[in-house]
Design goal:
Blueprint: H1 2-7, H2 11-24, E1 47-51, H3 65-68, H4 75-79, H5 86-89, E2 102-103, E3 123-124, E4 137-141, H6 142-155, H7 159-170, H8 184-198, H9 205-211, E5 216-217, H10 226-229, E6 233-234, H11 247-252
Antiparallel strand pairs: 1-4, 2-3, 5-6
Helix pairs in contact: 2-6, 6-7, 6-8, 7-8
Length: about 260
């Protein structure tokens, strides 16, 4: 409900539902090195909702970690490790544990399972596959609720409350982080920047750009691989933000109108 209210720009309910989840979910924010656990175990204190893959029901090459980890032996991982936007990475404080979710090429790279694995600057170490390949699937964790609450508070003009909510989250990631003195749009931008960092790889960026009516601009990242990205820029409001309705649906229902193409 917090997610739905955020999309609807119903800031009061987004705050209320996120706050309820924070207080009642039973989940607790992880701190420091606890956040370097590979995001593959639903027993992590911060996970509110996850899928426990049984040992005899591993998804192997169809698994999330076969696409997003740094060490799963799949052609996708070996040839195309996922990387963070360099410019976003450079905004992360050196004392923020989340900086270790990526390899900035200045630190020693983790040992790859084999020499056939490519290594790229700013590649992802956030998600790590376990040897058994039965990694649990993350569906929702507590940090998102803090970010929903802080964003809705910032949109509502409750700057002090938004700054405090953001502090409660980020101080568990960065011991040197202090309560933000930003206000207005600058504070909202800070919340959204931390949302990009915190939820990287968890499936939010497309919908965040869409709901906030913001453009996609991969040209702003100096480490974007155009051969992989293919689409480099999509303006806000472009028809490509809407999915095409399947022809089987428009054929079966004459009242169904196709989205603009």
């Amino acid at each position: 409900m917090a997610r739905v209210a955020l999309v609807q720009q119903d800031w009061a309910n987004a705050i209320a539902y996120a706050d309820s989840a924070i207080k009642k979910s039973g989940a607790k924010l992880q701190k420091g090195a606890e956040l370097l656990d590979g995001f593959n175990d639903y027993s992590a204190a911060e996970w509110m909702w996850g899928y426990n893959i049984a040992d005899d029901q591993g998804l192997y090459y169809g698994a999330f970690h076969a696409y997003m980890s740094w060490n799963f032996s799949s052609s996708n991982i070996r040839q195309n490790p996922k990387c963070i936007n360099r410019e976003l990475y450079l905004t992360i404080s050196p004392t923020d544990i989340r900086k270790q979710w990526w390899n900035d090429s200045l630190r020693t790279s983790k040992t790859k399972p084999a020499t056939s694995f490519a290594t790229k600057p700013y590649e992802n170490y956030k998600f790590e596959a376990s040897p058994a390949h039965n990694d649990h699937i993350l569906l929702m964790r507590l940090a998102e609720m803090y970010l929903v609450k802080a964003e809705a508070q910032a949109h509502s003009g409750s700057d002090a409350e938004a700054a405090q909510t953001l502090f409660e989250l980020i101080s568990t990631r960065d011991p040197n982080y202090t309560v933000s003195t930003n206000t207005g749009q600058a504070l909202l931008d800070e919340v959204l920047r931390h949302r990009r960092i915190e939820l990287w790889g968890e499936g939010f960026r497309f919908t965040d750009l869409k709901r906030l009516n913001l453009p996609l601009d991969r040209n702003a990242a100096s480490n974007t691989d155009e051969t992989v990205s293919m689409v480099m820029a999509v303006p806000a409001g472009d028809v490509r933000w809407e999915w095409v309705i399947p022809k089987s649906e428009t054929d079966a229902n004459p009242l169904c109108k196709q989205n603009p193409l």
